[in-house]
Structure formats: structure tokens, C-alpha cells
Amino acid sequence: MASINPPTNIVIPESDLRENKSDWDLVINAQHNLLHIPFSEIWRYRDLLLLLVRRDFVAIYKQTILGPLWFLIQPILTAVVFTIIFGNIAKISTDGLPHILFYMSGITCWNYFAECLTKTSETFTANASIFGKVYFPRIIMPLSIVVSGLLKFAIQFLLFGCFIVWFFATGASIHLTPAIFLFPLLVLIMGMLGLGLGMIISSLTTKYRDLRFLLQFGIQLMMYATPIIYPVSSVPEKYHWLIFSNPMTAIVETFRYGFLGSGALNITTLIYSGVVSIFILAIGAIIFNRIEKTFMDTV
Amino acid sequence: MARTIQIENVSKMYRIGQIGTGTISHDLNRWWCKLRGKPDPYQRIGKVNDRENSGGDYVWALKDVNLNIEQGQILGIIGRNGAGKSTLLKLLSRVTAPTTGDIRVKGRLASLLEVGTGFHPELTGRENIFLNGAILGMTRVEIRRQFDAIVDFSGCGKYIDTPVKRYSSGMYVRLAFAVAAHLESEILVVDEVLAVGDADFQSRCLGKMEDVSRTDGRTILFVSHNMGAVKKLCPHSALVQHGQVTLCGDTTNVINAYLRGKSENVRRRVWGDNKAGNDEMELHEISVCDQNGSFTSALATDTPLKVHIRYTLKKPVYNLRVVILLMTSDGTEVISSSDLMSDVNNQPRRTGEYISTCSIPAFLLNKLNYTIGVEFEVPGERSILSGNTVNFEVSELTINQLGTTNAPAPSGTVHPLLDWEVKAA
């Protein structure tokens, strides 16, 4: 410590004492840039990101007997229900694939996207109590959701992999295609899409909660507009433009083509999905950036 | 000495009332003005932060605040509830942004507006230390290095692998504060968090903060309603009134100015046209007088006091209780008492005007400033009217039972005359 002499007068807004801007580490004011992603700050708070992911994971299965097994049971049960209702009762085509595999491929992808979307859309409202008391880059919260969603996706994907091996061994008509190398890209696009949409919704709901009511319904609707329970081939040709305008369609289709060999690879629609997701993510980041400084006043 | 925080013309405007359908028209109007390059139409109509003055949709919680804080300084921030202290800390903590003005900060700033932010009930103490530390801005390496010290300080070592939802509230707070106390930031902003926890823990926290500032040269901003704590910890203080920093300097002076401002209308308050009451009753007067009925005399510890409360009941009230709460001026509660034992009890008090009088005997109070708060209530059922206070000062100590000491007054909130007997054993 340099000196302990108390300053005699502490209220001195004298302009001649004003120091050079560059001397300060941090300037707090109302200004914000249009698109500013604080990469260095995110890096500094990387431990928080990981701990939040850990929290999401650990807290969910505390005081359960089956623990993390629930991550596996959920998609299996959904696939079984779909198999019974859509496969056996409604007899919707699965492009000649085993029902369970067909539904699971769709569910695995969809779950990741839907989870990213619903959870990030609650970022501001659900964490208001934390955000109201302490600062950290707000973007950490949605990012942690995407990452923990990714882990769950990985677990469910491994399960899906086991099913592929099993069905392959028992002689089902499935085969891998080179399109599986697009897999990381698919995951990336889904993540960006879920994160972007979620950020848009979470930012818009800080002041007006109306969108929240639409979200649940919207996600359901979007699921039916994505080939989860039916293959694209069963959709009449004239509606293809409609179904492919949904950026998730190309992802699920490519995923299925890569791992199960059904359907076809359509690079154009995949590029379309990628462009849309980047666009949505950019919009999400802009709105999020705009709202994060003062949302505490309105949330 | 280097300046670490510079607050320049900072203002913060809030909208009063609910956010609802009316808000969107304001938003549209604001957007339309912005589009035409005009200033925000609602920033002009904001009122100065004055909670007595109602009206207007917008209020300036802070208005043109300027403050500079030097490195290593412990600055106390005091002011009434709603004066803008917490808003100022919120701006510094970057929880929300100022409407206008700049705040410049040098060094890492950690804020402690609440202890245990982000604690997850399902996680164990250990897990929460890491999570909470990270939320407050520590890296995992830092937390690991401090881990033992944190556990030690909290005194929760035995329960560190138990989920915090099983903790007693005291343990919870201790653990939470322990994490915060070990933050390695150059600047620490602390809001009224010490109000929780027992006295022993509070003094340990204050000690820790003092320590941190002295040994590491860290800057601390400390908001509290506990004048004792501010006096003890902070050599300098700033007084926030109506959203402005009105005084800044030596803590004793600032606290005196604050208390003076608080006790403007002293021992007698009479409500005339400006009525205090509701549809059940109306409060006319609260007064504290000596044995001669004077409201203005100087009071000594040997003066018996009478507290008169004059009110009108507009409806009969069964089981009414008029309660007084005697506090020291820093808010420490000393005595509470009510007219429960009086004759009129256990029968409905009919409509009409009443005076409830409470006698405070001589040789009970200390040489201090006191506040008396009055509440009308039906016990266990409802509170009818509360929040009205009078202040008085006992300025002379007739008998000091400690004999001649250096202290201006014996310690303690009361100084009753007690019997002593000394025998050879």
C-alpha cells in the first residue's frame, strides 16, 4: 500500500484531474455496440461456464435412484411410444427403416435443438435473481445451456449408436454413408439455431411475456413440421418447399442419410439451414447484446 | 493516491408502477423520437427521487452523481431507505447500466449485493463454493487455493459434503460470506449483507473486511444501515439523499448530518390536514414529554418520560393494541411495549378519540438518540397502522454507573440503575 493519508476531499469532479481513458480497465455507461461478443471475458469466465454445466448435470439427478440413466430412458420411451402410435397404429412410413431407429434418429436431434431453444429462452427470466446481484458476461448462461445440452446429446447419441450396431448385427437394411462426416456440422447448426432463437425469445420476453405462451406451442408445431415421425419422401412433392423452409428438416434428413442410409443428401438445403442459423444467431446476439445491460429494470 | 473509481454525472431513471399494456405506447413513442434524432421524451419528466412526493411515471433514482474513490479507501455509503444507495451499487456492479453518465473503474471489481448468489440447494457445500466463487468472478485455480481458508472461515468443515439445503440458515450465510470474503479483487462492493448472521459472525466479517483493506490495499464500498458498523469500518463516508451524494468526508460528520436530517421533527408530531390513518382510524399526535408536560426541555437520564399517542377510532375495534417500539437512532430495537395490560383491554374499543399513554421510568435510558415507532394492531390478526415515529435525545447522563470513564456515555442501548451488593466472601 502506498500511503495511508486519507484524502481530504473526495468529491472532486474536476476536469483537470480527469485521467486518460486508457488508464481505466472498465467503463460503465449506457452505450452498447451493435454486435459485441466479449470473447476475452467469456474466456476469463470459462470456469464458471464449466461449473454451470456441471451444476445442470449434477443437480438434475440428485436424489434419484437411476441418476443419469434417465437421460437414456427418456428417448427410449419416446421412441417406443412413437413406434406404437405412429408406426403400428397410424402406419406412417419410415422409409423401410426399423421403426425404433427411425424415430430415435429424429428424437435425438430434435431433443438437442428443443432443449437449447427452451432453456435459453428462459435465460433472463429464470436467472433474474442471479443476474440482479452479480455481474458476469450474461452470454455465459445460454452458452452453458448449449454445452450441457451437447453433453446430453452425446449420451443419447451413444445410445443411438448402440441401437445402430445392434440392428446392423441383426441384419437390418441400414448402412453408413460418407455423409456422417457432416455430423459435427449438423450439431453446430442445431446448436446455433437453438441458441439464436432462444436468445431472441429470451430477450424479447424480458419486458413483454407474451412470447412465452407461444413458445411451447411453437416448438410442438415446429416438431411436426420437421420429419421426425415421417420421412420427407412421404410428403407430397408440392409441399417440399414448405417442409424444407424449416431449417431443421435438412439437418434431420442429413443425419438419417448419414447414419442409416435412407433418403438422400441435399447439399443446397443443408447450406440453406447453415445460412439461416448463422443469420438467426447474429440477430439473437444483437438483440441479446442490446438488452443485457438494462434488462434487470424491466424483467 | 491513485483513483480507482470515478463516477461522473451518473443518473439512473426508473419507471414507476407496473409494466403492462401502457408501456408499449411509451416504447413506441421513445423509438419514434429516437428515429427522428430527438432526445428521449421521458427522460425530461423524471422526478427527483423523493418517496414522499407521488405522481409521475418516471423517477430519477440517481441524479448527477459524482464521486471519486481512491485506492485502498473504505468508503461507507449511508442514507435513508430508497435514497439510491443500492441503485448506485447496482450500477457499479454492472447489474444494470446508468441512464446517463460514466463510471470508470480501475482493477477488478467484485460485488456482494447478496450472499450466496447462485447457491444451488441440491449441491453440496464444496460444489457451491466453487460455483459461487466462479459466479463472483474467481477462477477455479483461485478457489482451490483459497478453499481451505474458506471452509475454515465458515466453520462448516464437517458439513462440506452435505447439500446446502440441509444447512441451517446461519451455516448457509456463513459459508456464502466466507466465499465472498476470499475474493481476490481489487475493489469490493458490499451491500447490507451483514444484516444476516449472528453478532459474532458479523464482527468477524467486519474484521475480515478491515483486514483485507489494510493488508492488501483493497478498496471497499460498504453500504449499511448499521451506523455502528459503518463507524467501525469506514474512515470516510458518503451520504446519499434523494438520489444525490450530498455529503462526503469524515464518517463521524457524515453520520451526524444523516441523523440530524432524520430527526427534524422531533419529540412531537401532530397530524393536522395531512392525515395519518385509514378508514378504521386516524392518528392525531405522538409526543414524548417530561414530567412537566414539556416537549422541548432537555432530557436527562433521571427524567421520567411519557409517550402520548392520540387517535380516533372510526369503527369499534376488538382487542386493539397500541404498540410502541423504542429504538436507538441506528435502528437497534431496545424495548417494545403495548397497552395490553390497560383497563380497556378485552372489550371492544368503541369509536371516539383516545389517548394511550406509556410511562418510561427514570434511570432506564442511556445518553443516546432514540426513536419511538408506533403501531396499531390486532395481535395475531392484522396491523392497522404502523410506521409513524418520533425522535428524542437523552442528552445528559445523571448517574454513570461506570464512574468516570473516557467514553462519552456508558456502552449499551439502555443504562438502568441496578442494585449492586459487595460483601467480603
Task: Tell me what you see in this structure.
The complex is a heterodimer of chains A (299) and B (425). Helices cover 61% and strands 1% of the residues of chain A. By secondary structure, chain A is an all-alpha fold. Chain A has one domain (38-292). In chain A, α8 runs parallel beside α12. The longest helix of chain A is centred in the middle third of the chain and has 30 residues, at 140-169. The two termini of chain A are 42 Å apart. The model of chain A is unreliable at 1-21 (pLDDT under 50). Chain B has 425 residues and is an alpha/beta fold. Chain B has 2 domains: 3-12 and 60-261, P-loop containing nucleotide triphosphate hydrolases (Rossmann fold, 3-Layer(aba) Sandwich); 268-396, Coagulation Factor XIII, Chain A, domain 1, CATH 2.70.50. Chain B contains 9 helices and 20 strands. In chain B, a hairpin with a 4-residue loop joins β16 and β17. Chain B starts with a strand and ends in a 29-residue tail after the last strand. Chains A and B meet through β1, α2 and α6 of A and β1, α1, β3, α3 and β5 of B. β1 (26-28) of chain A pairs antiparallel with β5 (100-105) of chain B, so a sheet runs across the interface.
List the defining traits of the structure above:
heterodimer, A: 299 residues, mainly alpha, 12 helices, disordered N terminus, B: 425 residues, alpha/beta, Rossmann fold, Coagulation Factor XIII, Chain A, domain 1, 2 domains, six-stranded mixed β-sheet, 20 strands
In short, what is this structure?
The complex is a heterodimer of chains A (299) and B (425). In chain A, 61% of the residues lie in helices and 1% in strands.
